[in-house]
Amino acid sequence: MDFCSEWTRALLNRVEKCGGDCAVSLLEDCAQLHYQVNDMDTCLEQYVGDLDGFIGYLTHSYQWIVNYSDDNKKLLVDENKDYCVCPVAKEMDFDVSPVLCHCSENYARRMFSKVLGKEVTVRVLRSILRDGKSCIYEITL
Question: What CATH number does the domain located at 3-140 have?
Answer without folding.
Answer: 3.30.1380
